């Protein structure tokens, strides 16, 4: 298949790129190397594929309509079979500082891409939503049947908006739109702002880790390889025209348990800098993954401890270069 993959240089995007190329697909990747974190990290995520004749990289901002001229030029009149849209400004807390930037990068960019899918007659559109759409819903595990009209951060509201836009385009133009609600993804190349990456770095360096709240907040952590398997499952899904689908691990880990696991794997005690709970953070996330299992056989395989071990192993390999 020929696939347009957005956010291809990011954490989840670059792993998806690895898998698509390994499976023999042709990928047109788009990324604007957003300065949210170091460009060098994103460049390193994809550098092994730059010489591949089945990978074309387009640097461009999807919120800017001129980027689609570049995409069309690259395509040369042969439309992709599907779009996997992972580009976004990610992160809950920074969205409170820059709500307009998030609206532009997440909502306007998604609408531009849906318009492109409509114009090019592309019939499969998979995109990254987020567990944050569930807000502070106390009824866990969270099911796709639950109400998502109460997001509590600008980031979460952009993801709800993308889900609604997706419904419009599936209804009006018959595009199969699948919104994948990822639950805290971790593993090699994880974004440096995310807790596991940050905590491992600080604990290894013997520096204090910022811990918000009393450690009882819970997250459903999902290992990157399981997420990519879910993305690929949805890419080949040929059922109904519009679905939102949880991709999680179906298990929760408290913040204190997460720190204890890192301490055990790294072999060093953490120095805790206890701070107040942050606005926009939700107390718990927990995915019911029955639907993903039913639609395309999704079944997470990696336990939290195994995943942390794989992350720490990857980091030590990076440091040894
Ligand atoms: N990592 C998680 O735990 C998690 C959880 C839920 C949802 N998500 C979603 O998954 C997707 C991927 O997240 P990630 O963790 O890999 O983040 P990431 O920041 O590593 O990757 C996103 C990529 O998109 C690019 N990008 C941003 N704005 C763009 C624009 N306007 N045009 C073109 N490219 C743009 C960035 O440069 C980056 O390389 C995002 O949509 C995110 O919201 C991630």
What is this structure's SSE topology?
Elements: E1 2-6, H1 11-22, E2 26-31, H2 39-46, E3 55-59, H3 67-75, E4 82-85, H4 92-97, H5 99-120, E5 124-130, H6 154-173, E6 176-182, E7 185-186, H7 195-205, E8 208-212, E9 218-219, E10 222-223, H8 224-235, E11 242-247, E12 253-254, H9 255-266, E13 271-275, H10 290-296, H11 304-319
Parallel strand pairs: 1-2, 1-4, 2-3, 4-5, 5-6, 6-11, 7-10, 8-13
Antiparallel strand pairs: 9-12
Helix pairs in contact: 1-8, 5-6, 7-9, 9-11
Bound molecules: nicotinamide-adenine-dinucleotide.
CATH H-tier superfamily: NAD(P)-binding Rossmann-like Domain
CATH topology: Rossmann fold
Q: Which residues form runs of ≥5 with pLDDT under 50?
A: none
Structural class of the helix and strand makeup?
alpha/beta
Enumerate the distinct ligands.
nicotinamide-adenine-dinucleotide
Strand content: 15-25%
- Provide the CATH architecture: 3-Layer(aba) Sandwich
Characterize the overall form. globular
How much helix is in the residues?
40-55%
Average of per-residue pLDDT values: 97
* H-E string: EHEHEHEHHEHEEHEEEHEEHEHH
* CATH class type: Alpha Beta
Report the sheet with the most strands, covering strand number, pairing sense and barrel closure: 7 strands, parallel
Number of β-strand runs: 13
Radius of gyration based on Cα positions: 19 Å
């Amino acid at each position: 298949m020929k696939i347009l993959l957005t956010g291809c240089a990011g954490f989840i995007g670059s792993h998806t790129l690895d898998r698509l190329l390994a499976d023999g697909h042709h990928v047109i990747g788009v990324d604007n190397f957003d300065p949210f974190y170091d460009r060098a990290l994103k460049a390193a995520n994809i550098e092994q594929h730059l010489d591949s004749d089945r990978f074309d990289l387009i640097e461009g901002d999807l919120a800017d309509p001129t980027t689609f001229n570049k995409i069309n030029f690259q395509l040369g009149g042969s439309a992709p079979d599907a779009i996997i849209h992972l580009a976004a400004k990610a992160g809950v807390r920074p969205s409170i500082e820059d709500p307009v930037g998030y609206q532009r990068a997440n909502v306007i960019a998604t609408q531009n891409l849906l318009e492109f899918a409509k114009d090019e007659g592309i019939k499969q559109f998979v995109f990254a939503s987020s567990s944050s759409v569930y807000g502070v819903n106390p009824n866990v595990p969270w099911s796709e049947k639950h109400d998502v009209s109460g997001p509590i951060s600008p980031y979460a509201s952009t993801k709800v908006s993308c889900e609604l836009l997706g419904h419009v385009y599936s209804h009006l133009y018959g595009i199969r739109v699948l919104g994948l609600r990822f639950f805290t993804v971790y593993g090699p190349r994880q974004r440096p702002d995310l807790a596991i990456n940050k905590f491992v770095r600080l604990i290894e360096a013997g520096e204090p880790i910022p811990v918000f709240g009393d450690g009882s907040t819970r997250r459903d952590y999902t290992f990157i390889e399981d997420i990519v398997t879910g993305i690929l499952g949805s890419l080949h899904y040929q059922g109904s025209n519009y679905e939102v689908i949880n991709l999680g691990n179906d298990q929760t880990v408290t913040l204190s348990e997460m720190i204890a696991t890192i301490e055990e794997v790294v072999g060093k005690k953490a120095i805790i800098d206890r701070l107040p709970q942050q606005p926009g953070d939700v107390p718990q996330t927990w995915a019911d993954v029955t639907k993903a299992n039913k639609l395309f056989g999704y079944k997470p395989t990696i336990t939290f401890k195994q995943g942390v071990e794989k992350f720490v192993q990857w980091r030590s390999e990076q440091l040894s270069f």
